[in-house]
Structures are given as structure tokens and as C-alpha cells.
Amino acid sequence: MQGRNQEQLTLKWFNNQLNERQKLAIKHIMQREARSSPDGVTLPYVIFGPPGTGKTVTLVEAILQIFYLNGAARFVTVCYENVNMWRVVQLVHFWVINNQNSKGLQNQL
User: Fold this and answer.
1) Which residues have a Cβ under 8 Å from the Cβ of 37 and sit 6 or more positions away?
2) What helix, strand, coil percent values describe the chain, rounded to 5?
3) CA gap 23, 17 in Å, rounded
4) What is the DSSP-derived secondary structure letter of residue 7?
5) pLDDT in the model for residue 23
6) Residue 40 has what DSSP assignment?
């Protein structure tokens, strides 16, 4: 995945209702395009915004894309409240169990 430009990365979206900003954020994550600190250290990805702006949906799609392309990938997900983290887990579980695109994920999670 590293070193691909945006034209080379073609993703099969699990959620077809993502808007263009959400898709762009996910593509940046998948292409490992993050900002660097002044000393060249790559900073972590941070998704933030007011309630109802699609943060959870974007995060879930990114998780599914990562596991779809690399089942051995590991990452840390942090939410402000436990109820938000449970929502992420529920949505990932829903897509893995119910979505035809995720058949390959069922054996990896």
C-alpha cells in the first residue's frame, strides 16, 4: 500500500453512502499519507468533528478497508466514551457478518 498515489488505489466501498470527504480521509489512511512533525516523525491519524458529521462511519470504513487488504494489520482505536467504542465494534461486526464484500474478512477477524 505504501507509495501508491491516489489514482492507483482503488477501493471497493463497504458503505456506499460515504461522502467525498470521508472517502478522501479513508484513501489518505490507506495510502499512509499523514502529516509529519517538524522533525520528520509521522503523526497519527485523527478524525474529529462535531456530533453527527460521520466520524464513526468513516472510522468503521477505514477499519474494514485495512482488514480487507491486510488481515494481519493492527491498530489502536480510541473514543471519548465507551458507548462510542461499542458503536464502532457493533458496526464493524455488522459489516463483517452481513456484507457480501466482507466474505474474506470473516476468517481474518
Assistant:
1) 43
2) 40, 0, 55
3) 10
4) T
5) 94
6) S
pLDDT of residue 100: 53
Query: Within its chain, how far is the Cα of 44 from the centroid?
Result: 13
**Using CA atoms, how far apart are residues 18 and 57, in angstroms rounded to an integer?**
8
pLDDT at 65: 92
Q: Which amino acid, residue 103?
A: K
Residue 106 φ/ψ, nearest 5 degrees: -55, -35
Helical segments of 12-69, H only: 20-30, 55-69
Supply the DSSP symbol for 1: -
Could you give the CA distance from residue 79 to residue 87 in angstroms, rounded to a whole number? 10
Terminal Cα-to-Cα distance of the chain (whole angstroms):
20
- What letter would DSSP give residue 101? G
Euclidean distance between CA atoms 109 and 13, whole angstroms:
18
User: Could you list the mean pLDDT of each consecutive 10-residue stretch along the chain, which spans 109 residues?
Assistant: 55 92 91 78 84 92 89 81 89 79 49
